Amino acid sequence: MTLPRVWFITGTSTGFGRTLTELVLERDERVVATARDLTTLHDLLAKYGQDRLLVVKVDVTRIEEVEVAFARAKLGFGRIDVVVNNAGYAHLGEVESMDDSTAREIFETNFWGALKVTRRAIEFFRESNPPGVGGRLLQISSVLGVVGLGAHTFYAASKFALEGMTESLSQELDPAWNINITLIEPGWFRTAAVSKIRWAPQHPAYSNPDLPANKVRAEWRGFVSPGDTQKAVEVFYKIAGLPDPPLHFPLGQEAIDMIRKKTATLNATITEYESWSEKLLSQDV
Questions:
Q1: Is 155 a catalytic residue?
Q2: Per the database entry, which stretches of residues form a coiled coil (predicted)?
């Protein structure tokens, strides 16, 4: 008899995290749901009970809270099969509009917080799960971790950092540990988390309304994300069950189109200027 999987999901108060938690519970699996505000999870706890859902207060920027959550997962369920690194933070604005403290806050959650969870997840899969069982780590990145976009500068930078760290980490793992990692790179999806996004005050030098970042500002209040969050998390769920999952998984047609456009531009540049890199080795004459 196959035991129901145990999921550890961060950032479950709203957005992808909340919707995925609901889906996993509906599929008769177990969830360790972490959030900074646990009141948002009271309804699910009342519905499913502590034998199915363990809620833990976690701010991913605090390593002691991350460690407590993994310890409670071990105590409550004995193992973790899937970790979903979902907690995130967005504050938009141009490079010159954003103060350093705000930019650092973005990185503290989206990169350093995600790194704290990543390290603990890898260790748990290797040392706390039964030998050879391993686990799945889903890094909820963004299309903006692959393609930069004006006014999303520091959010994109934090996701680029997450992508670089994860790509490198995937090459460090011993295959015997049976740990698989996938970077999920969604485009725009309709979640409650979007309403929490804040903007930096506009820098006076960037008043030209034709600048791409200002077009984003002007359209932001009326913008409705086209993607269906429920359908997106169903894909997350399927990815977690793939026997040989990809490292990168762009999600949504917008994300695919943006990445294809960047790839085509980069390939064209390489083709045009490849000759400039010829004979650059020290022994070449």
A1: yes
A2: none
